[in-house]
Amino acid sequence: MATAAAHRTAATSAYGAQDTADTAAYERAFDAAVAADERIEPRDWMPDAYRATLVRQIAQHAHSEIIGMQPEANWITRAPSLRRKAILMAKVQDEAGHGLYLYSAAETLGTGRDELLDKLHSGRQKYSSIFNYPTLTWADVGAIGWLVDGAAITNQVPLCRCSYGPYARAMVRVCKEESFHQRQGYELLLALSKGTPEQHAMAQDAVNRWWWPSLMMFGPPDDESQHSAQSMAWKIKRHSNDELRQRFVDICVPQAESLGLTLPDPDLRWNEERGHHDFGAIDWTEFWEVLKGNGPCNEQRITQRRRAHDEGAWVREAAAAYAAKRSGATGPGGTATGPGGTEGAQA
Amino acid sequence: MGDDALVLSHRLGEWAGHAPVLEEEVALANIALDLLGQARVLLSMAGDEDELAYLREERAFRNLQLVEQPGGDFAHTIARQLYFSTYQHLLYADLAAGDGPFAPLAAKAVKEVAYHRDHAEQWTLRLGDGTDVSHERMRLACAELWRFTGEMFQPVEGLDADWAGMEQAWLESIGAVLGRATLSVPEGPRTGAWSAGAGRQGLHTESFGRMLAEMQHLHRSHPGASW
């Protein structure tokens, strides 16, 4: 606790005092706070590189939520029952909400949503490579829920203990909803797997196509992951890519069995000595290609996102113009906007 | 009523991933979900919800032509929402006050619809009284959908409501909102020889068949399957 107090004091007195002795003191206080598992908060001093890493990671996470709406929204109008349609709509809505939490978390680091969206639209910031794969059948909606959300949760649960407070708190909320989605995806696949032969085949085909891309969601192998060591030292990250990937495989194997579906990996088997499943080699060429923008849907996803943004520009401008008129008008007509009017631009 | 909610919910679902701001992704999906919830209750009162949604042909749907109108731009979506949610709010308030079979559903749904109506009104104000571009788009959208609004007040068989009173209240409310939005009430008839009561009789506009084709194709491709 003493370290946190020292850290806060250092941070509050930091304004205006920029000499190197002070900076060294702040750095020591920051390192001590991180070492003591204390949370760094927006007004605390933090190293520039820590701030930059967090902005990059949180923004990429937020972008993934909103690009990730597309492959699933692709099936909203074709969902085969009203119950499934309601579940899917609610899920896509949650993703937009997660995007909002995460942009807010990023904003506490001194950036803005508009700036981040601009970086997404111009390709300067990335989103998860998984969303560059197409949803070709209804079963893909289930495979995304089970595997993609499952991998996301495996990645994100440790982030609930991340050293940066706003991000950690956003993750607590996000993970609760994600695990709900994951169960729904599993349940969707189970219904298909136990359904007609055609439905079972549809489920198996979807799992075959989504399995490897889901394993790639954990990022490159540890020896090729450029940000890992520093992120772990800062306690932004708690486990290595390969550790999390192994954990995910170990979770999925029994789930696949109870689904009555197979995982498309002939090398997948239990290793008694390691106490883990061994699994086959990931096609890293494909991973890097998708990351570079050459995946099946990269072009389409970013084009749709840009188009939605560009075509919505007149709406955002209208909201801003209206809000400006209201804030200027303080006369007797000021209440004419009614309840909610002062909330102004939703943009 | 169930078909109105089902079809409008579907149209709103088409916005997912396309909205002008993230907050509207959330809001439009939220409204779509409320409507889908209402549709499921109402269709279940009439039979099996999925059979009714997925296995009826175009001519058997009884929704208003207004709600099946394709999205168009954001102004069209807002104008459609303004017209419909104002109507739906009046209808549910009326039904909730009675003791008919729809009173319990209406009592719950009227709260959701009050939110939908507020959302549509707030956006009508922003677009109407925003920029010149948004004003013109909102004016156009309100005018283009105007001819579908008369159908809402054709008495529906089996629904005991004060249709004439609702129509009067609707006109007053819409007039007031459009006025505050610096827009005028569209001119021209609110019903045509063709549109008056047409959707309620299973006579729809051309885009509706394509909407159903998309909505129903997967369900129909696997007869008897459960999902």
Share in helix of chain B: 55-70%
Number of helices of chain A: 14
So what's the overall shape of chain A? globular
Spans of chain B of at least 5 consecutive residues whose pLDDT stays below 50 are none
Radius of gyration of chain A (Å): 23 Å
**Based on the structure, what is the oligomeric state of the protein chains?**
heterodimer
What order do the helices and strands of chain B follow? HHHHHHHHH
What does this structure look like?
The complex is a heterodimer of chains A (347) and B (227). Chain A has 347 residues and is mostly helical. Helix content of chain A is 63%, strand content 2%. Chain A has helices at residues 2-12, 20-35, 48-67, 69-73, 82-107, 113-121, 139-156, 165-193, 197-216, 228-233, 241-259, 284-294, 298-311, 313-328, and strands at residues 269-271, 276-278. In chain A, strands 1-2 form a two-stranded antiparallel sheet. In chain A, β1 (269-271) and β2 (276-278) form a beta hairpin. The radius of gyration of chain A is 23 Å and the shape is globular. Chain B is mainly alpha-helical and 227 residues long. Chain B is built from 9 helices and no strands. Chain B has helices at 2-13, 22-46, 49-54, 65-68, 74-97, 103-128, 132-146, 163-180, 207-221. In chain B, α2 (22-46) runs antiparallel to α6, α5 (74-97) packs antiparallel against α6 and α5 (74-97) crosses α7. Chain B is globular, with a radius of gyration of 17 Å. At the A-B interface, α4, α5, α8, α13 and α14 of A face α1, α2, α3, α6 and α7 of B.
